[in-house]
Queue: 4 jobs
Job 1
Amino acid sequence: MNAVPSPLAEILARGDIWRGDALAELPAATIPSGHAELDAELPGGGWPCGALTELLATRAGIGEMSLLLPALARLSADGGWLALVAPPWQPYGPACAAAGLHLERLVVVRAGQQAAWCCEQLIASGGFAGVLAWSECDFDARALRRLQVAAEGRRVFAALWRPVAAAQAPSPAPLRIALDAAADGLSLRIIKRRGRPAARSLTLTVPRPGRNSRVVAGPTFSPVRAGIPAAAAVA
């Protein structure tokens, strides 16, 4: 006679429940990062959709955008719109196109102090497959919670770039990754994820500004200049 599953076993078998000693498995709500070693450490095997991801970089221009290009190219190829909110550099169109981004569906928003509000509205609109945000002033706890709530239940990859010092403060984001430059690319340390804590850092080989012609942009090459309109689209 087959054993009847207990109510607890049925609950633990659900895709939206994870155990503390295992990674969460949400295959329907993730995007492959394009880096197999990283995907093996991410719950569901990729960047989460419907949740906020925090990327905590030691500084700009270390190749951090190259980390996201494979996922952004996939979203763009599927017809999705992408938004960059208050980026610290001016995206370089030819390199974006070479990386697989469709420029006619890439929107750049110069938001200034309104970055958190703009990001929330773009996520909540349901019209964007990917929303990446930066801010000259760090987002407070209330803004972070609003972004997480806006992303929940939506098919959107929402990523927020913050200074690495923010790693010391609590955050509602289910995924938080610290980034630093490495000799051959990027060093990644997963400081928060759904499931068991990450036991090791990763070193990924990605293009670095000044070392590879397919870099999207970087502070050294195309810094944001005064006088750029408050909102603009790359075309």
Note: Residues 48 and 71 are 11 Å apart (CA to CA).
Job 2
Amino acid sequence: MGFKEAATKTSINTALSYINGNPQKNLPRLMSFINTVMRNDTSFPGPRAAITRVVNDPDNNLNQLLCSVFDDVDLEVIKKAFTNFVVNANFIGWEKQQKVREEYGCNVPWTILMDPTSACNLHCTGCWAAEYGNKLNLSLEELDDIIRQGKDMGVYFYIYTGGEPLVRKKDLMELCRRHNDCVFMSFTNGTLIDEQFAQDMLEVKNFFPVISVEGLEDATDFRRGEGVYGKVLKAMDILHKHKLPIGISCCYTSKNIPSIVSDEFIDEMISRGVKYAWFFHYMPVGNDAAVELLPSPEQREFMYHRIREIRENKQIWPMDFQNDGEYLQGCIAGGRRYFHINANGDMDPCVFIHYSDSNIREKTILEGLCSPMLMQYKEHQPFNGNHLRPCPMLENPHAIGEMVHASGAHSTDLESPESVEHLVEKTEEYAKNWKPEAERLWKISHHTPYKETHEYIMSREEYEKTIVPKLNRKIHEYDAGSDSRPSVK
């Protein structure tokens, strides 16, 4: 570790200890100091200004969220998260990544998703993972090697998917110990979290679970099995008691909107100590995918507005993997910000797109990033100028077909391989129906048309007068027990 890096980490730990005594009072002081030190520095002026506004407003929901983190999460865990995530995964890691990008002309990810196992103790409706059973596994040494290769390229952030990753609890904790400079996040159904695992998490300090829920009890148990919601709440209570951070993962479908973003559900999660939430649009992956679960354009627009409302009013930070594409300049898969390694070792461009031409047992990670399939992604991203239509499968289905054929990639579904033509057929109608809604929303958000068009552009003032009241009314209707279809059109 260099002197500058060590000094930075020491400064962060000192600052966090200082904040911890009285976060509402000391956060503004710390930001004032940072702004003074960086007054001649042009780095990140927008984010610094936004954070300054938040920490100086005690009534701001994000100010309250930040303060709650210091109240609810172990200080040593907070320090480890800041050091590994802010310093290693961003400042140090980004510089390394950029050198590799320039040298090899390929995408280099910010995070790598990987499936330790195909095994799962549940059988959720619409999920492809349970089809495999305990057939496929990445060994401990293979997982370790992926991380070592990643760190050589500047990747310090790793996300476990599955299968149910916690089937491999012992190995995951061992990897946390071996790579104490990394951040590990795991999507999990939560049912395998117990007192001992919470103690293990407190020991390593760099493992962060994201628990899958589909809404309240009826919705979660309908998709995941009877009694699962109760087990999820028990897991949250264990984590909260041990002052460990809690995130949730929510898949929204045509059947659980708007319940999955209702005040009742969000407030229940906040009361359980949840600090952040990933919202995922249902993806019709696999030959037996339930296409009827795809949200309608009206439902997706509802989610677009509702997630933003939650961010502005609730003490939780929600992220919408599909509708937040405008903040990330479109699709982030294919190695641009992440790629996925399944339990068979195949390097997929995305956790939702199961086509590959590379396997870690035959190629290095860098060779895979330079492979035809992932280079196809690099050459075509973004897939159009409207980042509310980011995905090459869901909103630009012609793109995934062209890339698979151009690269010679094959389906990585070993149980029931799906042709790319079959996948495209399922999303063409969806893409067609969502496009005009996405163009209208883009014009509202950016005050500029997408492509050349003379369609009417709604002003921000008109948006506040027409769209927002309808959104608020629909949420209140749901919370009051209304069964009406969600729409903000």
Note: Residues 173 and 200 are 7 Å apart (CA to CA).
Job 3
Amino acid sequence: MAGLHVACRFNIVSAVSDMLRHPGILVNEKTILGSTPLMVAVKYASKQAVEHLIRDKRVDLDTVDNRNRRLEETIGAALHSPSASETAHIHEIIQDERRFRSEGEGRRNSLEEEGLAIDGTHRTRVFGKLKELLEELRELHKTELDKLELRQEEEGRQLITRMDEQIQQLITHQEQERMMLMERLMLEKEEYGTRQEEEMCRLLKKQEEESQFLARTRPDADLCSSGSPRPQSTRRPSLQGMSDKMSQGGGGSVCSGSPWEFSTTDEGYLTSKETELPEMIHSAWKELECPICMEVMAPPSRIWQCKMGHVICESCKDRVSLENGAQPPCPTCKTAPFIGRNLALERVARSLFTSKQ
């Protein structure tokens, strides 16, 4: 087996091209099986070797091997499972070359039939040049096609890489947003639970104080009507003045020097009109409760208010300012800031809690 057969067998295109440039190369030399280099390339489906070798006009396309098989019949015969696309492409290459050579022979025959006086050497040289130009054009087209395929493959790989990066970034961003959302929801849940517990404690404390106040109202009235001394109050020191006012004036009725004092009947019970006075005192007392510490804002406490009119004691207002900044929002409405003191409510507190001289 010659070197050209080996190069065609292993599809070494550079070796095939170099050997074809040698003027003494035997392009149609046969092996012991009767295979030419082109037939070897066809049998092993060496597509690139077939494309370079078949363009040489010295290559015989009508050769047959020892089994009398033509080129088209031996495509991929030496392979176990040749690719259908490669075999079809090689068959197309052979057919195109046969068609090209047949058209060239037809053109030469037509010139001879017309009796044109064309020199044989000149004719051969012209057709040789044309074939060389055509081969160069085909080679240029193939090179451009190869470059286009390479460029498209590279662009496809770059596109896939960019898509993978963008998908990974999107997944990472979504995971971060999910974690942030979960943290925010958990924080809001904890804050909501804390607020509910605070509101529940505040409500229970308020209900307990109201129950204690109502429980003390009837015994206080009985003690006032009987003229017996009233026990010391267990309420806050700030309410002591109000309790003293309610317990003044023994005997059958209380003294009438204060609008908060009330009288009893001869039987020792409050009339329906007189029972409104403790309820009014209780309502005024509830309005003076701080919504944070639940303490009555009795003198000398300073009472602050927000733009919406919600009140708070000065100590709780200072504590909220330390926790939330120089201008904290009102803890009741959560939006309006504190705007100043409620002097009118402070005067009401002084009038309620100032003991009668």
Note: The radius of gyration is 56 Å.
Job 4
Amino acid sequence: MLEFKEVTIDDKNVFDKYLKDYKFKTCEFSFTSFLIWRKGCDIKYCIYEDALIIKKKDFNEKYHFMQPIGYSRESLNKIIESLEEYKEKNNMAYLFKDVEDEFKDELEKVYGDNIKIGEDVDNFDYIYLSEKLINLSGKKLHSKKNHYNNFVKNYDYTVKDLSEEGVIEECISASERWYEENNRGDIYLTYELEGIKEILKYADILNLKGIAVYIDDALSAFTIGEIVNDNMAIVHIEKGRKDVNGIYVFINKTFVERYCSEVIYVNREQDLGIEGLRKAKMSYKPVKLEKKYCINL
């Protein structure tokens, strides 16, 4: 019987148990991601056949399951049969979304031509080499280096760690202020703001890293991320003043330099099909786009 419950910070130990041995490649399987979007994507979970089953909706209000975590080969068929039955009963659009390559390949071996697979292009994750983001080396990143140098030369700035006194509170205040300035009725910006406030509240428990940039003693940008395994870090949140030339390049480079130099890859999440965001993410020259798939039987 599938009985789902809401995700809260108290569930971190449960998720850690199942995710600790799963070397995920996308941002979707970070517990911090679940917490940020738990309300916006109505994320719920249950344990079934000793596997972690997560149900959520996408930004088009369509529900799906994420790939089960911790299943055995013996239990996979039973799990999928139960999920398929639940999907049909509840008129879900997809059986699975946010699927990574390894699970897709396994389903292809089991079900062959009896599955429909689509690439979820708008949700591909942008993956960068940390070394490139730190050094901004090469012709392709020359303009980024110029923006960085321009910021350093022209602004009286200070960088503070997220853990320093008062920084979290100031990040929350800045988030609220920028939300009021930029929101035009987008409900997901409301959910994002609530998610930012929640993960900052539990920053220590979530092992988050972050920096804030002050210009003339006023908070002007901040970023929040985490190291998720030996190879990869994820940048979850990056906010800044749009009127400050080079501030996004500066905070990106500085954050990776301080906290991500020991990992090979930095995941800067997806573009959601937003053209401006796609252009910005491509301008940093990702080493690859990590694919995600939609799957139905």
Note: DSSP finds ten helices and 14 strands in the chain.
